[in-house]
């Protein structure tokens, strides 16, 4: 059996069971219930930085899903392709993923349906060095015990939309399971460390990155425009996982959703100032969205 071992445990999130569990519960305990959720949730967009920066927003999405659906059988997790440059999306079609909270089992039946019905490749090795999916799995393990996963790395190309539509059709036919799609992406990476400073350096530049550049991505996501989102991300450099987000939105559209709901939007520079009382010339945006 193929086993995908964690690569960022102890760095992006706690590496020990009890510490990992405690941090998740800290996120959940500090989170009030949402009053304006849709009756059903079929998908969400989550960030994938270290939990100190983005864990609360990712947990917010999963908590919202649990508020509407106590049991989810499988999460299809569309991941950003930071280090994967294949021509098609890469499906992890079997085995288990290990985290400090134990094993998360891949939904092999759903994986085969996706491989048969979409332009995607069975490529376990593509996931070996990618963190964008891994950081979501302990949250799923804690909030939805026993849920299976289907990890898929999605390059930021137009084929992401077709992939999402195909997954949506498969979910629609799979009435005996509750399946939710998750798209993993961070937003604008701004500052000299990222080589992206079109508005210069300083407080006003970071404000532009959040309120203008991030917001272009968020608005397209909320309007559920996957084609526009892909094009805008390429032009504006405002999402590292545009393919993952586009696939998620396309799946949600096929499942009947017409608009997204923004739960929260923040940046690493805001969190550094709040939690660490430090400022930075660099910043990364994070959004929590449900459909």
Features:
291 residues; alpha/beta; Protocatechuate 4,5-dioxygenase, Chain B; three-stranded mixed beta sheet; 9 helices; 12 strands
Counted by DSSP, the helix tally is 9
Largest sheet: 9 strands, mixed
What's the overall average pLDDT, rounded? 97
Q: How many domains make up the 3D coordinates?
A: 1
Considering the protein shown, what is the CATH homologous superfamily? Answer: LigB-like
**Which residue ranges are poorly predicted, with pLDDT under 50 across at least 5 consecutive positions?**
none
- Beta percentage is 15-25%
Q: By helix and strand content, what is the structural category?
A: alpha/beta
Radius of gyration (CA) equals 18 Å
Amino-to-carboxy terminus distance = 34 Å
Coarse morphology: globular
Helix content: 25-40%
Could you say what the CATH topology is called? Protocatechuate 4,5-dioxygenase, Chain B
Which CATH architecture is right?
3-Layer(aba) Sandwich
According to DSSP, the number of beta strands is 12
SSE succession: EHEHEEEEHEHEHEEHHHEHE
- What is the top-level CATH class? Alpha Beta
């Amino acid at each position: 059996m193929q086993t995908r071992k964690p690569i960022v445990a102890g760095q992006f999130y706690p590496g020990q069971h009890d510490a990992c569990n405690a941090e998740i519960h800290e996120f959940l305990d500090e989170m009030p219930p949402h009053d304006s959720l849709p009756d059903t949730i079929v998908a969400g967009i989550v960030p994938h930085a270290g939990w100190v920066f983005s864990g609360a927003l990712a947990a917010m999405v999963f908590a919202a899903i649990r508020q509407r659906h106590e049991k989810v059988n499988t999460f299809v997790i569309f991941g950003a392709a930071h280090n994967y440059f294949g021509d098609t999306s890469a499906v992890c079609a079997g085995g288990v993923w290990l985290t400090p909270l134990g094993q998360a089992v891949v939904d092999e039946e759903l994986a085969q349906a996706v491989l048969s019905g979409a332009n995607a490749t069975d490529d376990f090795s593509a996931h070996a060095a990618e963190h964008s999916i891994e950081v979501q799995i302990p949250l799923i393990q804690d909030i939805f015990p026993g849920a299976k996963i289907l990890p898929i790395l999605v390059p930021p190309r137009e084929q992401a939309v077709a992939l999402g539509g195909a997954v949506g059709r498969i979910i629609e036919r799979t009435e005996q399971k509750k399946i939710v799609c998750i798209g993993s992406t961070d937003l604008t990476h701004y500052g000299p460390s990222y080589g992206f400073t079109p508005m210069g350096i300083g407080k006003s530049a970071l404000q532009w990155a959040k309120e203008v550049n991030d917001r272009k991505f968020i608005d397209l996501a909320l309007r559920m425009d996957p084609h526009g989102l892909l094009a805008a991300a390429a032009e504006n450099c405002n999402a590292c996982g545009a393919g993952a987000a586009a696939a998620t939105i396309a799946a949600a559209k096929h499942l009947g959703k017409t608009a997204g709901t923004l739960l929260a939007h923040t940046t690493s520079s805001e969190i550094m100032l709040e939690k660490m009382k430090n400022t930075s010339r660099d910043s990364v945006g994070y959004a929590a969205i449900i459909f």
